[in-house]
Amino acid sequence: MVKRFVCLLLCLCLIGVLAGCQNSDTPQNADATFRYHLDQEPTSLDPQISSNVSTDIVIEALFEGLCRLDSNNDPYPGVALSWEHNADYTRYTFTLREDAAWSNGDPVTAQDFVFAWQRAIDPSTGSPAATSLYSLKNARKIAAGELPATELGVTAESDTRLVVEMDEPDEDFVRKTAQAVFMPCHESFFEETNGRYGLSAEYTLGNGPFAFSNRYAWEKGTHLKLSRSSTYVGEKKPLPSVLYLLVGNAEADVSDPVAAIENGAVDVIELPGNQLDKAEDSSGKLITFSDDSTWGLCLNLQDDVLKHKDVRALFIKTLNRENLLQYLPAHSRQADDILSPAATWNGENYRELAGEDFYVQQDDTVLATLSSVLKELDLTSMPSLTVLGPDTDNMKLLLNEMLVVWNGRLGNYFNMKVLPENELAQKVSSMDYQAAVCSLTPDDQDPLSLLYLFASDSDKNPAGLQSKEYDALLQQASATMGDESLQAMKNAEQYLNNSYVFYPLYYTDRYYLTGETVTGLVIHPCGAGIDFIGAGKES
To answer: What angle do CA 142, 496, 121 make, to 5 degrees?
Structure first.
């Protein structure tokens, strides 16, 4: 009896020791379910054609590129264990993990990246982010239809060795490979989907820290349910057991974002600026990204009147900046440059290197050109136009101040129209406007990310600018290094100002609110998404 008791006691102790060992390997904040509301439902989870932040968030959970980005926006190993480059950053070599796997168990190979990148640059794919690959050898010629995609400068020397060759030096290339467009693509699976790749859980195959819980885990109009992947072997073990990504309002009301955090409807949410004061009094934790976007007056250069530079000069140079700045939104800051103080280049602050206060200053002598400009255009008076802006009280006052100036100086009556921000963004994106106070938000903090928005071949060009001179400056900035590259970026920024394309007014921050127990979220700057891999909840 005593022997049986001792044996039982030893067994219980052993179980306790083993449980203790198991618990020591699993952080106490692990295995939580995270709920997040997507601004819009993805139309496709094909990484090569991702076109919005909501889709990028899902893709970052389902897929993994050569690297991931940490909380400082610095790269750390993803599928690639290591990488090296030559002295002028025109050749990169990546060594991949031998045990990296797709969620179906197939190995992830260097050829999966070659196939994905060739798809992305192929003009028939229509990738909105194809410009991110433009530094690669032959990329621009392929995008222009002059070469086949197989000529792209990326080669699989073996299953675990990927070599990338550049036409232009790209010191920031490793960090770029964390973007959705650089994610791998399983070629045979892609072909088997017969054009349905990424359209449902059944037709999506990832290699990331999370995977669809089952083939029905994407319920359109309701949610996407992702579970920790059993095949993932990355540098960091994913902490959450489930990501529950909500769409629409069927399962959660997020119309009041602060309340949505406090009642547990979601665990993290992006906040509009007008909710900041309420959020600061809540139980949640506030995360702020400074100078994330530049707001200003953008003119549509495809408009029959505004396509003329001298006309644009009349609208911009007559503005009374001091009066306009009285009406900036709460929690914003005066913007004297198109590129914000958050822009960084080679690890240094771009504004400190390039200088500041590039904005066009008021100059009423421009009015002396009014009659000659009208005569040249065979007009008797300046045609009326409508300026758009977001629907806020401050913006109505700011737009009205513009109209007061233009009505009085340019000899006509001009109009304004305020819209919800999403409708305003859609109007600008589709070039369905004449003038608009809108935002510029780059993909990252590299100055070229924002400057390339205005490139002639940019799908996101808010002004419809088509300029060989401007494109040449971007090309020079991309193809050179050091002071020459910096000067080209500075000249490109000056070009936008001096051509009266965009008139900066204010910078805004980006705000997120999380539950009070949430830890480890990586929220990328410039609205580039959220990485849940290290997210936990403290007990």
So the answer is: 15
Output the pTM of the full model.
0.82
Written as one string, the DSSP assignment of 207-221 is: -SSEEESSTT-EETT
Q: Which CATH superfamily is domain 33-247+515-537 in?
A: Dipeptide-binding Protein; Domain 1 (3.90.76.10)
Give one DSSP letter per residue of 259-281, joined into a string. Answer: HHHHTTS-SEEEE-GGGHHHHHT
DSSP run (H or E) holding 289: strand 285-299
Q: CATH says 290-509 is which class?
A: alpha beta
Report helix, strand or coil for 536.
strand
Q: In the numeric block, which tokens belong to residue 247? A: 């769409």
Provide the terminal-to-terminal Cα distance of the chain, rounded to the nearest Å.
42
Tens digits of per-residue pLDDT, 362-402? 999 999 999 999 999 999 999 999 999 999 999 999 999 99
> Helices (H) and strands (E) in the chain — how many of each?
17, 24
Residue-wise pLDDT for 460-514, tens only, equals: 899 999 999 999 999 999 888 889 999 999 999 999 999 999 999 999 888 899 9
Evaluated on CA atoms 354, 357, 359, 363, the torsion sign reads negative
